[in-house]
């Protein structure tokens, strides 16, 4: 039944009120009146609403009011985003349009026209906008969408609550498609004003027909187009139907024993489906069943093999489920038919002929009973008595007795007891026996070798016993001397006889006895018996001694004891001869009277007397028994056990060699009886633990095993052996070989030049070999390795390398190598220092250094010398000792191996005081040497020297030269040339300015030219008069090959001196040559020094030379190894000057460049003095205007001396 809510009463009142307002009289001013008035409106939440308002006077100010709140004249109504005014204002249309209405829009509205000059304001009648809110959800208890389990016939309460709605919804319950009338409903206030909820309750009584169907809660409202629904599925529980047993066949309960019985129990209906169980006499048999949920059917199949004991059993099937009030049951009682399971004949079917046999035949229980009858062959015998007794499982037992007389011809016939019944017409039950009639054999004899024939022991002999007739078959038993012959009793005895089985051929029976003849068969009597019958034969066997035994008068023997041995031959046929020997040596013996012998043979005995020694231990003394007739010998030996103290054998090793860190085995070759009880090893007075240690182990034979052997293990090891008879000792030496280790090597070894010295290398090694010392000289050049001028000597562990008349080129590193065959060889490095007096770098006759003499510049003089030991430098000026306490003079001294340098820095150079001749003296304990350096003013450059032709073509000439003294300023070069016979000079600037090679191009073939080379700096050029800077050349013709100079050209043309310095010239790599001095000019003056000799000087500017400076003043590097300690010395500094001495005498130095440290406050080359060479390539000396003194930079002005 649908419910209606009382929410419509307020709506009705509002409607009446609105209607009344609508009929109020309109204002009199028709132009300002309404031509369309709003009306009450009802919409569903979320829909669009429009309240109409038409004004007769366009252009008036119109706005709407909501529950008295003015919305404003703006058509967009900003305060309410969902509100706006629709229509054409010019036509007076001001309709209120509301989007997506919600409950807040449920209110009273009126359209108002603003006051104007022509009339008062107008207000439309109030109208009501009603918003209908549909219910969103229905809350069902039990939970919607679930499945509820109920029991049929019981009452349950279901409730359904709607969500917020307006108006309150109606709720209806539907059960299995039928509306429930018994419900109660209540309307309640919702979660917001103007909203309501409805709660309805129904009572439900489910039936079995409701199982699986829906219980629906339906909510309807004017705001809904279709009702909303929620539901639950009803799972109704109800009991199953009674079980039914489906019996196969017509006779229910009748079954045969052994039959496989299959019974099906079916129960229909029920939720849940029935649980089925089979019982037999109330005891569960099977609890397996299956269900078909679609048809609500439960089935259970019982499969059983019927047995006789199942007779009278009740089989029942029970059905129930969780809501059954009781168990439903259906049963059937079994009636089992079964035959007798067995037939037994009591009594013996074996009897002697012409005697009675009595037998009884008894059956097991059967249902129904069976009858019995007897058969002998195909002849039926009449029983003497029949009876029936009650049996098991409701059955019966039948019994029949039989007695009859047996005859010989009945032997082997079948005697049968047969059981039969009408219930088992297709089956026959029988029990049979074979009748055995006994009677004796008729004849017995033996077939074998003739009596008296001699048989050799080990001969195979075959004896056959034969008999005719008899039942049972004759047993044919063999006897040897009245003892039955059987298989050998102990399995380990040799099989000397093989007894065959009884064999039958027709009425003849035989049994074979095969013998391997032995001593016991000699004159033995073999008999065969069959019942009361018997037959016999006798054998004659020849055999060697059955046993040769040696008897001793003592068991514990020691050296010097007397031993008496007796050899006894127990029995033989024929008699034997006895003899003695020891390890092949024949011994004299004495005969002993024989005793009686077994097996009817002959016995013999002989004795021998021996004197014992330790060498006899373990030897065998052999007794031999020889039969001449049999040509056979039997032997026995006695091993001598002589007790004696330990004795070391001749093969005992006394010296063992091992390698250090390896293993050593000190073997033991000792003889003793008994074996030594202990092996005690002692080393240097200390006993080695018999249990072993970290580095040793005493083996079971007494040998001592050592591992990780060290040289400390070298020495004598004492071995002490002991047994119960005494002790013995031996000494074993362990010689440990180890790699050499250099103990003494004096580094450095010093010698005065021209003197003699031994480089001594003393090692610790084992073994010490004569040729184990070897010497090497370390160096980069192969010729440095030669030791031909040195003497090698060795004595014991000391090797010597003797140097006679020591020379400077012998100084350096030597390596002592010692190899005694044990790896690794030892290597030791020693330096040979050849001491010599100072050798100063002193150009002939003078070296120049240029500096401005205006008291603003500084100059550095570089003095360099070689010598060992260290050198002390002193300076003089014009022969007067220089006062180094003067603050204008600063000296720095550096030592690098045998090369020593002294840098004298003169600050604030004055022409009057410092343009002088400075002398540097180098002194050490072996002597002194000196050189002179002239300090001069800056000037024009000296002419370049050594101009020569390097290559020539018809159109070009390749030139090379050496730069001269640059006068203290950067210099550049210019080539001037003329063709002979052609007036005018041509010139070409050398680019880059620092280059010392140049190719002159633009020449003519077959033309003679004269070429001049000029050097220039800021003060002028060197002039054309110097012979070393001019040359004449003639270019080759076009038909001639390119001309070359007469002297050997260098293989690689250097492009600039800086490149030659980096790559290193050949002279740089010559051993024992030293670099020329380099020095640093003052801060304000670019300067250099150069030899003023007639030889060709070698100079290049250091303007662009910027070597890497070491980190400290005293730190030096060794870039080329031990052989070039004197080369590439690096001193931190900023300015460098170079001097090369050419064509110097033997022992002079090649070019070397040193970086000389100037100290933290030393002058450095200003960065602004570096010039970009690209900007001066086209500037030569001839292009400069004559320079006045005032035009020179201040730092270049000075006194010219």
Automatic annotation (TrEMBL):
SUPFAM superfamilies: Fibronectin type III (SSF49265), Immunoglobulin (SSF48726). One of its GO terms (cellular component) is plasma membrane. It is found in: Cell membrane. Keywords: Cell adhesion, Cell membrane, Developmental protein, Disulfide bond, Glycoprotein, Immunoglobulin domain, Membrane, Myogenesis, Phosphoprotein, Repeat, Signal, Transmembrane, Transmembrane helix. This is Nephrin. CDD domains: FN3. It comes from Panthera tigris altaica (Siberian tiger). Residues 943-1037 form the Fibronectin type-III domain. One of its GO terms (biological process) is muscle organ development. The gene is NPHS1. It is a single-pass type I membrane protein. It holds the Pfam family fn3. Belongs to the immunoglobulin superfamily. Residues 1-22 form the signal peptide. Residues 484-506, 1024-1091 are annotated as: Disordered.
């Amino acid at each position: 039944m649908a419910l209606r809510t009382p929410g419509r009463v307020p709506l009705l009142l509002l409607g009446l009120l609105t209607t009344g307002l609508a009929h109020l009289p309109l204002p009199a001013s028709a132009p300002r009146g309404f031509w369309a008035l709003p009306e009450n409106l009802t919409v569903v939440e979320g829909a669009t609403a429009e309240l109409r308002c038409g004004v007769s006077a366009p252009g008036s100010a119109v706005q709407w009011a909501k529950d008295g709140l003015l919305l404003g004249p703006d058509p967009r109504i900003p305060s309410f985003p969902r509100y706006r005014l629709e229509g054409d204002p010019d036509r007076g249309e001001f309709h209120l349009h509301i989007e997506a209405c919600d409950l807040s829009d449920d209110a009273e509205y009126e359209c108002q026209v603003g006051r104007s000059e022509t009339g008062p304001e107008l207000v439309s009648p109030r109208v009501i906008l009603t918003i209908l809110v549909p219910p969103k959800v229905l809350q069902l208890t039990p939970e919607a969408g679930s499945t509820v389990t109920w029991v049929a016939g019981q009452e349950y309460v279901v409730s359904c609550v709607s969500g917020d709605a307006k108006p309150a919804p109606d709720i209806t319950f539907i059960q299995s498609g039928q509306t429930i009338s018994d419900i109660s409903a209540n309307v309640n206030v919702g979660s917001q004003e103007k909203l309501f909820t409805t709660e309805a309750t129904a009572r439900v009584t489910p039936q079995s027909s409701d199982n699986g169907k829906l219980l629906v809660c339906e909510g309807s409202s004017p705001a809904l187009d279709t009702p909303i629904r929620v539901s639950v599925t009803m799972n109704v529980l109800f009991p199953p139907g009674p079980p039914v047993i489906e019996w196969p066949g017509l006779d229910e309960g009748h079954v045969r024993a052994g039959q496989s019985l299959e019974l099906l129990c079916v129960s229909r209906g029920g939720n849940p489906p029935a649980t089925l169980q089979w019982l037999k006499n109330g005891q569960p048999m099977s609890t397996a069943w299956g269900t078909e949920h679609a048809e609500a059917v439960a089935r259970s199949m019982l499969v059983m093999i019927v047995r006789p004991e199942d007779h009278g059993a009740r089989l029942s099937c029970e059905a129930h489920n969780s809501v059954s009030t009781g168990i439903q049951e259906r049963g059937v009682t079994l009636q089992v038919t079964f035959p007798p399971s067995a037939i037994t004949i009591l009594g013996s079917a074996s009897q002697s002929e012409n005697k009675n046999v009595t037998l009884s035949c008894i059956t097991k229980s059967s249902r129904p009973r069976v009858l019995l009858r007897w058969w002998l062959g195909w002849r039926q015998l009449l029983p003497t008595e029949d009876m029936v007794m009650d049996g098991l499982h409701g059955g019966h037992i039948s019994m029949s007795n039989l007695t009859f007389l047996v005859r010989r011809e009945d032997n082997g016939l079948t005697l049968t007891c047969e059981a039969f019944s009408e219930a088992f017409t297709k089956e026959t039950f029988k029990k049979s026996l074979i009748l055995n009639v006994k009677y004796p054999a008729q004849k017995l004899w033996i077939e074998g070798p003739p009596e008296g024939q001699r048989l050799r022991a080990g001969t195979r002999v075959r004896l056959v016993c034969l008999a005719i007739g008899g039942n049972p078959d004759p047993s044919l038993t063999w006897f040897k001397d009245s003892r039955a012959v059987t298989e050998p009793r102990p399995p380990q005895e040799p099989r000397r006889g093989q007894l065959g089985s009884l064999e039958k051929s027709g009425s003849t029976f035989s049994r074979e006895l095969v013998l391997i003849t032995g001593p016991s068969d000699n004159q033995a009597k073999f008999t065969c018996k069959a019942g009361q019958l018997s037959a016999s034969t006798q054998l004659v066997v020849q055999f060697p001694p059955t046993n040769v035994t040696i008897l001793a008068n003592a068991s514990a023997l020691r050296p010097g004891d007397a031993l008496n041995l007796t050899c006894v031959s127990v029995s033989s046929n024929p008699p034997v001869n006895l003899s003695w020997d020891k390890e092949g040596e024949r011994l004299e013996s004495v005969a002993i009277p024989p005793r009686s012998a077994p097996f009817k043979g002959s016995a013999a005995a002989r004795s021998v007397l021996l004197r014992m020694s330790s060498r006899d231990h373990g030897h065998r003394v052999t007794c031999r028994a020889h039969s001449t007739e049999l040509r056979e010998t039997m032997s026995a030996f006695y091993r001598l056990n002589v007790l004696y103290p330990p004795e070391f054998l001749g093969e005992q090793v006394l010296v063992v060699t091992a390698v250090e860190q390896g293993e050593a085995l000190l073997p033991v070759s000792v003889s003793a009886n008994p074996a030594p009880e202990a092996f005690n090893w002692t080393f240097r007075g200390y006993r080695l633990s018999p249990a072993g240690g970290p580095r040793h182990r005493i083996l079971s034979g007494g040998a001592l095993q050592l591992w990780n052997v060290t040289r400390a293990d070298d020495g004598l090891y004492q071995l002490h052996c002991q047994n119960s008879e005494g002790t013995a000792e031996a000494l074993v030496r362990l010689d440990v070989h180890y790699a050499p280790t250099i103990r003494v090597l004096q580094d450095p070894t010093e010698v005065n030049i021209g003197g003699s010295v031994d480089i001594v290398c003393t090692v610790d090694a084992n073994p010490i070999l004569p040729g184990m010392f070897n010497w090497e000289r370390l160096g980069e050049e192969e010729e440095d390795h030669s030791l031909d001028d040195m003497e090698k000597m060795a004595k014991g562990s000391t090797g010597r390398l003797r140097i006679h008349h020591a020379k400077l080129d012998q100084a350096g590193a030597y390596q002592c190598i010692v190899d005694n065959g044990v790896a690794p060889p030892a290597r030791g490095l020693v330096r040979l220092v050849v001491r010599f007096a100072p050798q100063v770098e002193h150009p002939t006759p003078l070296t120049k250094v240029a500096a401005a003499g205006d008291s603003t510049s500084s100059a550095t003089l570089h003095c360099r010398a070689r010598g060992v030991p260290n050198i002390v430098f002193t300076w003089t000026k014009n022969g007067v000792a220089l006062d180094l306490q003067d603050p204008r003079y600063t000296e720095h001294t550096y030592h690098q191996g045998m090369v020593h340098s002294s840098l004298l820095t003169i600050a604030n150079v004055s022409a009057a005081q410092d343009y002088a001749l400075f002398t540097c003296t180098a002194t050490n304990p072996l002597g002194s040497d000196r050189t002179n350096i002239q300090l001069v003013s800056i000037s024009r450059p000296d002419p370049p020297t050594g101009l020569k032709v390097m290559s020539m073509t018809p159109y070009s000439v390749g030139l090379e030269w050496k730069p001269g003294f640059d006068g203290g300023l950067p210099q550049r070069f210019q080539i001037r040339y003329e063709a002979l016979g052609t007036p005018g000079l041509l010139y070409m600037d050398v680019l880059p300015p620092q280059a010392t090679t140049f190719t002159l191009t633009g020449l003519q073939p077959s033309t003679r030219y004269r070429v001049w080379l000029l050097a220039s700096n800021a003060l002028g050029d060197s002039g054309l008069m110097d012979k070393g800077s001019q040359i004449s050349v003639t270019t080759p013709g076009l038909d001639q090959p390119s001309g070359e100079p007469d002297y050997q050209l260098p293989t690689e043309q250097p492009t600039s001196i800086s490149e030659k310095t980096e790559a290193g010239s050949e002279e740089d790599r010559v051993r024992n040559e030293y670099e020329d001095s380099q020095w640093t000019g003052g801060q304000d003056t670019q300067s250099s020094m150069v030899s003023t000799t007639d030889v060709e000087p070698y100079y290049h500017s250091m303007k662009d030379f910027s070597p890497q400076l070491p980190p400290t003043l005293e730190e030096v590097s060794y870039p080329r190894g031990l052989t070039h300690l004197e080369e590439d010395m690096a001193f931190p500094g900023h300015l460098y000057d170079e001097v090369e001495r050419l064509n110097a005498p033997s022992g002079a130095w090649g070019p070397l460049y040193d970086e000389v440290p100037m100290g933290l406050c030393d002058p450095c080359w200003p960065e602004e003095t570096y010039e970009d060479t690209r900007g001066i390539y086209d500037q030569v000396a001839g292009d400069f205007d004559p320079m006045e003194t005032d035009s020179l930079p201040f730092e270049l002005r000075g006194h010219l001396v």
